[in-house]
Design goal:
three-stranded antiparallel sheet; two-stranded antiparallel ribbon; mainly alpha; 19 helices
Length: about 500
Amino acid sequence: MAPKAVTVTSPAAFPATFPAVFVLLLLFAPSATAHDYSDALRKCILFFEGQRSGKLPADQRVKWRSHSALHDGASAGVDLTGGYYDAGDNIKFGFPMAFTTTMLAWSVIDFEKTMGSEVGNAVRAVKWGTDYLLKATATDGVVYVQVGDAISDHNCWERPEDMDTLRTAYKIDRNHPGSDVAGETAAALAAASIVFRSRDPAYSRILLNRAVKVFRFADTYRGAYSNYLHSVVCPFYCDNNGYQDELLWAAAWLHKASRRRQYREYIIRNEVILRAGDTINEFGWDNKHAGINVLISKEVLMGKSPDLKSFQNNADAFICSLCPGTPHLEVQYSPGGLIFKAGGSNMQHVTSLSFLLLAYSNYLSHANHVVTCGGKSASPALLKNLARRQVNYILGDNPMKMSYMVGYGARYPQRIHHRGSSLPSVRAHPAHIGCKAGSRYFLSPDPNPNVLVGAVVGGPNTTDAFPDSRPFFQESEPTTYINAPLVGLLAFFAAHP
């Protein structure tokens, strides 16, 4: 049906017709609304239960969903049940699923103390991802990177519980490498091992040991997975940015998780070769550069790794590229003050970049450090305020006066591009709904019958306009990798309203 958004690396300035000073006022003025961040956090995490694939547990809270894809992997003789559907379709794409898991884990690592009663649900969301990633990496030198045929799936509009499209399992191996998706998988497993270090030490060790093996495979057999699986993963999750950043990203998480010197040395040795300073203001499922620099900078700011100072310099430059009013601004803002990057599903950029703003502001605070941008200072408080304004925009402080999180606030998207949400549930309509029989629901002007609480959609266009319509997938489709970084943001602001 709809190709997924890709990261666009060319920077953009403010729209020429819109005064930058007004955007400054929008971004740094106090919020017009007092938001219930705790409620938004609960709903943001609940969304992941609506995206679950496989056999659902007894404590499943999204009751209109049921078991689905119970034979995934059978055609290849492996068990690939479980995991998450990435968006509004029924494919399991390993690349964005691994990034989602990494960001959920990072949210818990940095912000679990402010999650309150939701920390358990956040940890369960991480584990639903890692349980699947362990299955996908169970054989040395092999990573299963996708289940389902995107073309046949996108030609149907059917519930995951009714799927009758191809569930082909696609893999990478030594002869057909995929350092990008394998590197991100290693990062996810390593990050999650930190989450479970004290909660479940045995599981944590399994995750870390697997991360080591998957990273070794990714680094030894180098290549982009879309070179081999182009017709399968493109244009949906084609690697547009190269695999080098995922190798550094994985090494950074393995160093954080294991404290083994070999990964620190790998980072130093490969910093230039793997282009750590490239596209400093990009971060998402395809491009990890800004995330690498912020993650590694924490140690530098703590005074532990002065030989990694270049990563802090890159992180500072990233901050300057986002701050309005500085001479180094490289990011476009909408008239209403929302970060905007071309390529569709814009909220993925908003939540990921805002997460880094908040995380780095905390690292700066602890180090008593301020970023200097061409003679102007960007304090930790300013970065937090900029991140908060992006979150508040999502929750309703925007020209449309609409929350872009389904189920939060008085007004939110009613017709999201999501098969399970838009079709009658199996509880309400037990009979099978075939591939093309669902088209009338897709084309219907009626609101979706099932509310996918917590789903954050792709969001408005560059002029802050939003068509609440299923066919406008770039604006109306939710994704797991939009929500994952938002978990950490909401957790922090819930404790610091």
